[in-house]
Each structure stands twice: as structure tokens, then as C-alpha cells.
Write a structure and sequence with these properties.
Immunoglobulin-like, five-stranded parallel beta sheet, 24 helices, 53 strands, flat, TPC11
Length: 1250
């Protein structure tokens, strides 16, 4: 936009003058009024009151100027940073300011008379207009110009919308009246001067109080007097600032003043808009002050006046920040310019006025595009930009000088650059850089947009061309650079006769030249592309380079690296074309370091970059870059030059010698980022090696350098590793007998160790490599530690006389199989190995020859069983060893079992504890075995108790030892055996009631012991005794026959305040139980409540202890007795409540007769009555009451007998006696005692006939 007058392209803001603070007009000087708006009727606004000085005044002025919107973005969001103000343009002028003349001076008396005026002797009466109107003879656009940039300057720089005067306001009883009168006089005089100028500028006053005002009592009265005398409005024209304000308060005051004056300022420009609209609505052309030269010119036509008025209306709308209205008026102005009756159609293209109209048309189109961007209509802006370009192209082809000349190419370049600058000033949100470019998920973090999507009001189905969408500024800068190149090409095609200066060419040729070439905003042909012997000329390369550089910055900020590299290459071509090697070097060096073309195989483009940088480095004498590019150019991947001979070692011969030692450059290159022609690999023959055993290895050094290039000598070659090896280092040792043929040779490496570093292996070999040559070196490597060996980096150095070059590669991982070289006659032959042994190998510990056996290990063991195991260790090494043994018993949940070594008591220091699970081998505690001679054998024994739960354990026996000849290398041998612990038995339990034979206590006569018991800690039981029967059915789940010696019940806890007595119903004896065998054992449980009145239920926690032994000699210590404990589910005894127990006894006198005794118990403290009802059945007959009642006293029981005679045989007979509690109407269940079956009734088995 620099080619256009600033007034045409700048965004218009309301203009406010600040008078009385400090004169800042020198910061942005503007032309004098007489140079812009000539005339004698200048109005000077001045005051005799000096400007306000002081800290507060300076700070207040800074706050006002900080709210200036001249540098704000051209969008509707700009007010957010200025307290939502529209934005103003300020000018601080001190106490003197001049308003331009409103009317021009009358023409001088030179014989010119007003149009249509009679010839009289009286003075002529002139119709005066603005000094810059096309109706004024002295105007630069008289008589047929549309509008001049000075008209915009008039309203933006010389005629303010608001004039603000700042005065001091103090309080002094002796001088208050005098000062107030002086203040009223100054205010009224300034108001009169503004009114005299006939401008509609609004006037406001700010009174800045000093400290004396704080104590004054009549401040309000004085202000009211001033207001009445000056006619100022306290709300919109008169403002007071208290003293001693902070910067924040001063800023708030400035914002408050501008917020109040904002509608006043907008109303000022609205009045101007109405005035212009009224003048347009008249529909007539005003008469000029004086007619133009008679017979040779004409005044501005009616369409031209419409363009002038629409442009004014658009500018005033911009002043009001109403961009919709401004865009509408600009569109009307463009239609009037390009219309069939527009001034483009009525103006000859060879006239200077044609270029003035084009300048105005460009300004209007620029402002129209800016309005679209302001209103967030990017697609409309792009379409408006394109539409104007096409219309102008068509116009120039029809009426102008065509579009096949450098002038049109320059305009296209300028028009695209203007679009880029408008986008940058608009700061559209869609093109804002949201975050630094990264590899994050774009769906989460978003992306930087490359173009703006269409507006929502555009129909979805409407097809839009890509160029109709608004792209970011980089696209337009690139378009501008392309047109600048076309301008350069067209300028180069200008014939020599047209490039001759006008003073050296015939007039006819100069006239013909003006008819062909378009000079709009461009130099003439002899200045655009002067002859070789002529000075000056337009710097096309600089124009192209600057636009490419701006495009590069935009594309780079959005992460479009491939486009950036393309533009950088174009920029370097432009600079190299004009031999600007310094600038080209600055462009090519970063491009060479990071270009994608090298990594993606675009070798033609990469070669152009490399050769260009190589030449630039030579021209600017950059030795490091020259050596680096020479190193890359050795590779055959790049395009070569037939006459260029590559010699890396002597590449700096053309550089000045100087002090070689002090200025010897050092170059560091990473093969991941740069192309190398020398490759070095180290390959192991096997993917696994062992500590202490040699592993054959091979270093292959090969060159793919360009044929005919000189040899390269590597000074050092280093392979770095992580693991048991630090590095393998080869250094150069010249060999006079070496040739340029591929060779395979053996070498010997020397091992060096520096604590605490890992071992290094060193060797010296001849490392002079010729193009296409491969050198292979074989050598063995001995590892000292086990573990994974991983390649970290490969590095080689070239130490020449004039430079040092270091090439490294950290990307050593590869999925390809390793290559092993073999000698095949006079040539080398390669073969692929089964694995990749170049990057990673596994170093295993030295293979142990120590033998470990567990001779007495059983296939399984039983829980709680004491176990002893023999560990037999045999030394099968070729020499004596010194060893220790470690044992771990590991379960599935990482729990361990304790053990002890046989032959050591509990206090012995050799007794073992479970070792740490995550400790290293050397740190684990061990049982010392000592020195074992070759072939010697030793047996150690451990003892432990099997776990109480069935489980599986792993027995890990590790022997750590070292040979007597090499004590630094530890060797280990591990044996892992599985230990299975099974439960030998499982049991089921049946718990039933029995009838206790002891009498119950009498409710009327309590036991004397209980009555006298006053000891609260006494455990004597005085409650009702109850008998229970516990039957256990024990099954053997062992894999062999076991001898069961005894079974007992173990009481763990009793809940509910009761005492328990357990007795066996069998005699202990040794019983052999085979697998799956079943044994029944019964126990009697007598319970008694401690307190007779205790009504809580009772719970018993018991376990069944089975003492057993493996078969064999009972006196043999190898088969000790083992006690296995089986938990019994908790036994719940209900709370004391009424119950019925049934006992069946066969008659001793009558065959097949059973006596059923039903015992009813009442352990409560209540008198209970029961009804007994024996139901009849076809299966038996009975004697006894069919229905009877029974009364039970508290704490009593009674027995009712029924004689049952079964009528059937071979089945269960179940008499059904219903016992009902009369009071609670509750049925009591009859519970059978020993041998009776429960169910609907209590059943007894009746056997069949014999």
C-alpha cells in the first residue's frame, strides 16, 4: 500500500484535538495548512493561558494518546483493548491550532470574470467553493478531477470533530473571582473562534483541579457559574478532574471523557453525511468559481459528481465505524466509475487524469475489501478483490494500453500485496496462530487454518472456486511475487530503442512509446530496465525477494514446511541470478540444514540447493559450510557436474591460508540429517555370546563416493555401546602397501579399562578409503560381563590439514539383517546373517559346569509335614572352584518359606533366612560350600515345615562360584524344582442334639452355689445343661496309605457365655487309611450356660486335629507323626427356647415294638401349655393319647411316651406328633436324637423279614 497516498488507504477514525496539555505535534508532523488547503481565511484558535505542566498533566496526555486507534487491527474487535471505544485519532497541539479555510480565495483580477456575469464596473461576485474542490481554479483536480487525497487529510488531520481544552482549576479566596472571569473569557473566545470558522466542530473543556481545591467549599458554585457563563453542558461539554489521581484513575477518567464524547463525535460526522447526501440529492452540477480555459476543457460530469459524493459518504461512514454503510457507498462509487456512462468511458487513456481515476478506483476497491474483512466476510472480500481485478483487466484491454506490458504485471503484484497487507492488518481470527506447530492430535488441539471457510449466508450447495476463498497472507504474497517475476520478464523484453532516455530518442519514438507502455505507478521503460551504460533502474530482484520473504514468514508460522522450502529455493534463485551471494547464503544455509527433499529422495531439488550453497560458501569464504557441502556432494545421490573434481581433503585450497592452527574450522554432521558417502558398520558373528569366550566380530568400512573423486582418510572410527562394553575405537595407521581394491584383513584389538568405565577395545588400521572401495577388519571380542549389549552411536573423524570433520550417527537401529563379509578369491562376497547383530546382541553368563541334584525329592508333600531335602553339588569344571549355595522357596503370591540348614542349631550363623526377591546375585546371603576340587561332590541338607494350606512352591537352588584362576567373573548355576503340598484329608461334619441325662434345676429352689456366687470373674456354669452329638466323616485324599493315630477336637473360642466339655465316643487306635478311604468319628459336646438367665445364642469355633504318619517303621525318624488341623464350620447353638426331643428305643418284651419318648423342654421363665396331637397312619399303630394337653413350669421338662408298632417292613416309619403352644399358637418341630431321621416326622428304620 506504500505506492498509494496514505490518505487513500488508511482507515479513518474520529479526529480529536487535545489543547492545553503539551504540544506533541512534532511526533507525527503533517504538512502545513497552506500546502494542503491554501487560502487566506485560516482560523487560528489560541489562548493566552499557558499549557498545563506537571506530572498529572503528562500522565493524562499519555493516557489519552494510549487510546489512539491508529495502530489498532482493522476489525470490529479492535475496541476490546480500548474499553470498547470506537477508536480515535488524537493530536496534542498546545495552545495554538489552525483550522483551514472553508472557502477558497477569489481569483485574482487577471481578466477572468464569473460565468454568466454582466460586464459592469462593480466588483465581480464569485461563487466560492472549497480550496480542493474541482470547481475551484486553484485546486489540483480542477476542472474535471473527482477527488483529491487532501480532502481526506482535511477531515483526518486538520478539522477535528471535537476540540478539547484543558485548563487549571485552583482555589484561592483572593483570586478566585479573577481566575474564573479569565477562564470564562478564554472559553468563550475559543468557542467564538470555532464558530467563526463555520466548521461544526464540537467544543469541550476539562478543568484539572490542584490540591487547593480539596479544602474549598464553593467549588460547585464556581463550576455552576462557569457553566452558565459559557453555555457548556456539565454532562457532555464540561469535565472536572480531582487532584492527586493515580495512573489507573487518570486512565479511567480519559475513558470516561471519550465515552461521553463518542456519540458527540459520531453525530458530527453524521451531520457531514447529511450535508453530502443533500448535495447529491440536488441532481445538478454546481457552477465553478471560474470557468476552465475556454474551448479546451470541460468540468466534471454528473457521473463524476456521483462518484465524488458516494466516496465522501463512504469515508464519513468509516469515521462513524459503520462499515456496512461504507461498503455500500464504495460499491456505488465503483459501479459509477465502471458504468457505461462512467468517467472511465469518457476519459482518454493517454491523459494524466486517467491515472488519477485509476488511483481513486484502486483506493475505493481497497476500502471495499477492507470493509468486507471488517465485517468478517472473507469470501466476499476475496470475490470483491477478484471482481475488481477482472473488471480493470477488461477495461484496460478495451480502452487502455492493454495488459501485456510490465505496468499491468506490476499492478497485479501490487494488488495481491495489498490483499496480503489487508489480511494482516485485519488480524482475522480464522488465521490466528493458535499454538506452536507440534505433532499433537489435531482433533484435540486444533490446526492453523490455511484458508477461511465460506460465510454462513452463502448457500451450502453453491460451488465456489478455490480462488474465491480467502487464503492466508502467505498465499497473496506468493501471488504478488509471481507477478513481480512476470514484470521482470516483461521488462527484460523491452526493445533497446524503447529503453533509450527521452533526451536521446526522437520525439516520434517517445510519443509512440507512451502509447504502448502503461506507466501507472511504475517507472518509464528507460528507468524500469535501463541500458547497460545507464545508471539506476528498478531493483526487480529486491522486490521479488521481499515478497517471497514475507510469504515464507506466513507459511512458516503455519507449519507448511514444504511450501516454505519451495519459496526459499525460489528466493535463492532470485538472489543468485543477481549474484547477491551474501543474501543467498543466509537463505540457503537453513534450507540445506532442514530440507525435506533430502529425507524424501527429491534429489534434483536437493542438488540445486546443495550446489547453490556450495557456491555461496565459496564466495563468502565460509569454510565450514564449504567443507560440509563438499562432503555431501561426494555422494552419487546428488546431481554432479562433469568438470568439477571432488577432493574433500584439499577442498580448502582456494581459501586464504592465514593462521591454520588458530582458524582451523571444526564441522559436526549427523548422518541422520545429512547424506554420507562413507559407511561404517560393526557386526558380530552371532546374536549371543558368553562371558569370557571370544566372539568373532567384523568392521566394514565402505565408500559410495562419486567415481573420480579423491580418496578420504578417516582419522578415527568409534562404535559406542551400552552394556558390558564401552566402545570399540579404531585409529588410522598408514599402510604404504594399501591399494584401492576391496580387502579383508585380520587385526588385534587391545582391551583397556579405566574405573568406573566399561572396557574399551583399541586398534590401529589403515582407514584410507577410495571411491567404491570396501575395507573389512576381522577381530575377536571377549566380554567381561553378562547382559544386553546395545549400539548407541557410530562416529568417525577426518582430521585434515585445514579442517576437522566429525560425522556421527545415533540412529543405529535397523530391521534389516546384518551382513557378513567373506573372502572370495580376490574379491569380497557378502552374505546375510539370520539376525540383526549390528545393533543389539545378548551376552550370556559363562556356561556353568557345576551339577546340582535333589536325590530325595518327592513328587508331592502333605501340609504341615516336616520336610528335609538333600542338595548334592558336583564340581565338573576343569579346575577348583569356590562356591556358595542359595535356596529360595517361592509361592505364587511371592511369599516365602523359612528353612534351616541341617547340622546347624537355631543359634548358628549359618542358619538361612529367606533371601530378598529383588536383590542381585552377589548381594544375596548364601550358605558357604567352600572350595571344591575338580570332580568333588558335596551334599547339603535343608529342613522346613510344609505350609498349612495346599499350595505349590518353587524350590530355587542357585550355586554361585568362581574359578580359582579367574576370580573376577562370577558364574552361577540354578536348579528349579516344583514342590507340591496337598491336604491329606477332608472331612464333613453333622451336628445333632442329644438328651442330657442330668436333672434340671428347680425354678423354686435355685442351687446354693449360684445364689452365693458374688465373684464376677468366676467361670463356674450354673445354667441348663445340653448334650450334642458331632459326627465327622474323614476322607483320605492322599496318594498313598496313611496311618491315622488319633483324632481330637480343639476348641478355639466359645461365644455366648457358655462352658463346653468334649468327650470322644471312640477309642484311639492306629488305623490305616488307603486313598479315598472314609472314616467316621463321633464326639459328644456338653454345653452349659454360665448364667441361668442368659438368653444369648452360643457359637463354637472348633477344629479337628488328625494325627497321622506315613507307613513304615513307627520308630523311624524319617516318618515322624504329623498333626493336620481341619477347620470345622462355626457351630451355632440357638438361644434357650422351648423344644421337643424324640428318642426311640426298641421294646425289650414285645417284638417290633418301639417306644417313642417325646421330651418337651421349657428353659424359659414362663408357664407354658402345649397341645399334643399324634396323627394316625396306615404304616403303624400306636398306643397313647391321640390328643392331650401338657403344662410346663418354668425351667422344667416332661416326657411323653408313645408305643409304635410298625405295620410295614424294610422302610422308614415316621410318626407325626404335632406340638402346639396354646398361647403363641406356634408349632414346635420335633428333633430326633441319635439314629433317628428328621423330616416331616421323626423316622425309625424298620428292617425286613429275616
Amino acid at each position: 500500500m506504500d505506492a498509494y497516498p496514505p490518505e487513500f488507504v488508511q482507515h479513518n477514525l474520529p479526529f480529536i484535538v487535545l489543547s492545553g496539555l503539551e504540544d506533541k505535534s512534532g511526533l507525527e508532523p503533517i504538512p502545513a495548512i497552506q500546502d494542503v488547503l491554501p487560502g487566506r481565511a485560516i482560523t487560528t484558535i489560541n489562548s493566552d493561558v499557558p499549557s498545563i505542566a506537571g506530572k498529572d498533566a503528562r500522565q493524562l496526555l499519555r493516557e489519552f494518546l494510549s487510546l489512539d486507534g491508529s495502530g489498532a487491527p482493522w476489525n470490529a474487535r479492535g475496541g476490546a483493548g480500548r474499553a470498547n471505544l470506537l477508536g480515535f485519532r488524537f493530536r496534542a497541539v498546545g495552545r495554538r491550532f489552525q483550522l483551514p479555510p472553508r472557502k477558497a480565495d477569489p481569483p485574482a483580477s487577471t481578466g477572468i470574470s464569473p460565468p454568466s456575469s454582466p460586464t459592469t464596473t462593480s466588483p465581480p461576485s464569485w461563487t466560492l467553493h472549497s480550496p480542493i474542490s474541482p470547481l475551484t481554479p486553484g485546486s489540483p483536480i480542477f476542472p474535471d478531477g473527482v477527488i483529491a487525497p487532501t480532502w481526506i487529510a482535511k477531515h483526518q488531520q486538520y478539522v477535528p470533530s471535537v476540540f478539547i481544552s484543558f485548563f487549571e482549576f485552583s482555589s484561592d479566596p483572593n483570586t478566585d473571582s479573577l481566575r474564573d472571569n479569565q477562564l470564562k473569557t478564554e472559553i468563550n473566545r475559543i468557542k467564538g473562534q470555532i464558530q467563526k470558522s463555520e466548521y461544526r466542530t464540537k467544543y469541550a473543556v476539562v478543568l484539572m483541579g490542584d490540591e487547593s481545591v480539596l479544602d474549598a467549599q464553593d467549588v460547585e458554585e464556581r463550576l455552576a457559574t462557569i457553566r452558565r457563563a459559557t453555555g457548556l453542558d456539565l454532562k457532555t461539554s464540561l469535565f472536572t478532574l480531582p487532584p492527586n489521581q493515580s495512573p489507573a484513575e487518570l486512565r479511567s477518567f480519559a475513558v470516561s471523557v471519550l465515552s461521553t464524547l463518542q456519540p458527540v463525535s459520531v453525530e458530527y460526522y453524521r451531520d457531514l453525511t447529511k450535508h453530502s447526501r443533500r448535495k447529491k440529492g440536488r441532481g445538478t452540477v454546481p457552477p465553478p468559481t471560474a470557468p476552465p480555459t475556454r474551448g479546451t476543457s470541460q468540468t466534471l460530469s454528473h457521473p463524476g459528481w456521483n462518484v465524488r459524493y458516494d466516496f465522501k459518504l463512504g469515508v464519513f461512514a468509516e469515521f462513524r465505524q459503520e462499515m456496512d454503510a461504507a461498503q455500500r457507498h464504495y460499491n456505488f462509487a465503483l459501479e459509477a466509475l465502471f458504468g457505461s456512462e462512467g468517467i472511465f468511458e469518457t476519459t482518454a487513456s493517454w491523459l494524466p487524469r486517467w491515472d488519477d481515476i485509476r488511483l481513486l478506483a484502486d483506493a475505493i476497491a481497497l476500502r471495499q475489501v477492507r470493509c468486507h474483512l471488517w465485517n468478517a466476510m472473507p469470501t466476499a472480500a476475496a470475490q470483491a478483490w477478484l471482481k475488481y481485478k477482472l473488471r480493470l483487466n477488461s477495461l484496460l484491454d478495451r480502452r487502455g494500453k492493454g495488459t501485456s506490458n510490465y505496468g499491468w504485471a506490476a499492478w497485479e503484484s501490487r494488488w495481491a500485496q495489498i490483499m496480503a497487507q489487508l489480511i494482516q492488518r485485519a488480524e482475522l481470527q480464522v488465521f490466528s496462530i493458535k499454538h506452536p506447530i507440534s505433532q499433537d492430535d489435531p482433533l484435540i488441539n486444533g490446526t492453523n487454518e490455511f484458508f477461511s471457510p465460506p460465510e454462513k449466508h452463502i448457500p451450502v450447495g453453491e460451488r465456489l472456486s478455490p480462488w474465491e476463498l480467502l487464503h492466508h497472507a502467505g498465499y497473496w504474497y506468493k501471488l504478488s511475487a509471481d507477478n513481480a517475476k512476470r514484470r521482470y520478464i516483461l521488462a527484460k523484453e523491452i526493445p533497446e530503442e524503447d529503453r533509450t532516455p527521452p533526451g536521446m530518442s526522437p520525439a516520434a519514438k517517445v510519443s509512440n512509446r507512451n502509447q504502448i507502455y502503461d506507466h501507472y505507478l511504475v517507472p518509464e521503460p528507460h528507468l524500469e530496465n535501463p541500458l547497460p551504460d545507464q545508471p539506476g533502474g528498478f531493483e526487480h530482484w529486491k522486490d521479488i525477494y521481499e515478497k517471497l520473504k514475507a510469504a515464507i514468514a506466513e507459511f512458516d508460522s503455519r507449519g507448511q514446511q514444504r511450501k516454505v522450502e519451495q519459496l526459499q529455493l525460489e528466493a535463492s534463485r532470485t538472489l543468485l541470478h543477481v549474484k547477491r551471494f551474501d543474501e543467498a547464503f543466509k537463505v540457503l544455509r537453513p534450507l540445506w540444514e532442514s530440507m525435506y527433499w533430502r529425507r524424501e529422495g527429491w534429489w534434483t531439488l536437493a542438488s540445486e540447493v546443495l550446489w547453490g550453497l556450495h557456491e555461496c560458501a565459496l564466495r563468502v569464504q565460509d569454510a565450514e559450510t564449504y567443507v560440509a557441502t563438499e562432503w555431501e556432494l561426494l555422494s552419487q545421490a546428488f546431481v554432479g557436474k562433469s568438470r568439477y573434481r571432488h577432493d574433500l581433503m584439499g577442498s580448502l585450497a582456494s581459501f586464504p591460508q592465514g593462521d591454520a592452527a588458530a582458524h582451523k574450522p571444526s564441522i559436526f554432521l549427523d548422518n541422520k540429517d545429512f547424506v554420507s558417502s562413507v559407511f561404517a558398520t560393526l557386526t558380530f558373528s552371532e546374536a549371543e555370546g558368553h562371558v569370557g569366550e571370544p566372539l568373532q566380530s567384523q568392521v566394514a568400512l565402505s565408500s559410495t563416493a562419486r567415481a573420480g573423486s579423491a580418496s578420504v582418510t578417516l582419522s578415527t572410527l568409534t562404535f559406542q555401546y551400552n552394556g558390558s562394553l564401552s566402545e570399540i575405537h579404531l585409529s588410522h595407521k598408514p599402510d604404504e602397501a594399501a591399494s584401492d581394491q576391496s580387502t579383508l584383513s585380520d587385526c588385534v584389538l587391545e582391551e583397556t579399562t579405566q574405573s568406573p568405565q566399561k572396557p574399551r577395545w583399541l586398534a590401529s588400521v589403515d582407514m584410507t578409503i577410495h571411491p567404491g572401495q570396501t575395507k573389512v577388519f576381522n577381530f575377536p571380542i571377549i566380554f567381561r560381563e553378562a547382559g544386553d549389549l546395545t549400539a548407541v552411536a557410530t562416529r568417525f573423524e577426518i582430521n585434515a590439514d585445514r579442517f576437522d570433520l566429525v560425522c556421527s550417527s545415533t540412529d543405529v537401529e535397523s530391521e534389516e539383517l546384518s551382513t557378513w563379509w567373506l573372502q572370495a578369491g580376490t574379491k569380497l562376497k557378502s552374505r546375510k546373517l539370520n539376525k540383526n547383530t549390528s545393533s543389539t546382541i545378548k551376552v550370556l553368563p559363562k556356561p556353568p559346569k557345576m551339577d546340582i541334584r535333589l536325590p530325595d525329592l518327592r513328587s508331592f508333600y502333605y501340609t504341615d509335614e516336616p520336610v528335609s531335602l538333600d542338595i548334592e553339588i558336583t564340581n565338573k569344571e576343569d579346575e577348583d572352584t569356590e562356591s556358595v549355595v542359595e535356596v529360595r522357596l517361592l509361592g505364587r503370591s511371592k511369599d516365602t518359606l523359612g528353612y534351616s540348614w541341617a547340622g546347624h542349631d537355631a543359634a548358628s550363623p549359618s542358619k538361612e533366612i529367606p533371601p530378598s526377591l529383588d536383590g542381585s546375585d552377589l548381594d544375596l546371603p548364601g550358605h558357604v560350600v567352600g572350595i571344591l576340587a575338580q570332580g568333588a561332590q558335596r551334599t547339603e541338607k535343608i529342613k522346613f515345615i510344609a505350609p498349612s494350606e495346599p499350595s505349590d512352591y518353587a524350590l530355587e537352588v542357585k550355586v554361585l562360584y568362581h574359578l580359582a584362576s579367574d576370580r573376577d567373573i562370577p558364574i552361577s548355576k540354578t536348579l528349579i524344582a516344583e514342590l507340591i503340598f496337598n491336604g491329606p484329608f477332608e472331612a464333613n461334619f453333622e451336628f445333632t442334639p442329644r438328651l442330657h441325662p442330668d436333672p434340671w434345676p428347680s425354678y423354686f429352689n435355685l442351687p446354693e452355689a449360684e445364689t452365693d456366687n458374688t465373684d464376677p470373674e468366676s467361670t463356674a456354669a450354673f445354667g441348663i445343661a445340653q448334650k450334642w452329638h458331632l459326627q465327622s466323616k474323614v476322607a483320605s485324599f492322599a496318594e498313598e496309605a496313611l496311618i491315622v493315630k488319633d483324632m481330637t477336637l480343639e476348641t478355639h473360642s466359645i461365644h455366648g457365655g457358655a462352658a463346653l466339655a468334649v468327650s470322644k465316643e471312640f477309642d484311639p487306635e492306629d488305623t490305616t487309611m488307603t486313598p479315598q478311604d472314609l472314616a467316621e468319628r463321633s464326639f459328644t459336646l456338653d454345653t452349659r450356660k454360665i448364667d441361668l438367665e442368659d438368653r444369648r445364642p452360643t457359637a463354637l469355633d472348633l477344629s479337628l486335629n488328625i494325627t497321622w504318619q506315613r507307613p513304615g517303621n513307627v520308630n523311624n525318624n524319617n516318618n515322624p507323626s504329623v498333626t493336620t488341623s481341619l477347620p470345622i464350620p462355626r457351630i451355632q447353638i440357638p438361644a434357650p427356647e422351648p423344644r421337643v426331643l424324640c428318642t426311640a428305643l426298641p421294646s425289650s418284651t414285645v417284638p417290633d415294638l418301639f417306644h417313642f419318648d417325646y421330651t418337651l423342654e421349657n428353659p424359659t421363665m414362663h408357664f407354658l401349655t402345649f397341645e399334643l396331637n399324634m396323627e394316625a397312619s396306615e404304616e403303624f399303630g400306636f398306643s397313647g393319647p391321640k390328643l392331650r394337653g401338657l403344662h410346663l413350669l418354668p425351667l422344667s421338662r416332661q416326657t411323653v411316651r408313645y408305643n409304635i408298632l410298625p405295620l410295614v417292613r424294610g422302610k422308614w416309619v415316621s410318626p407325626l406328633l404335632r406340638v402346639t403352644d396354646r398361647y403363641f399358637n406356634k408349632n414346635l418341630k420335633v428333633q430326633g436324637t441319635g439314629g433317628l431321621r428328621g423330616g416331616k416326622g421323626v423316622g425309625v428304620w424298620v428292617g425286613g423279614e429275616e
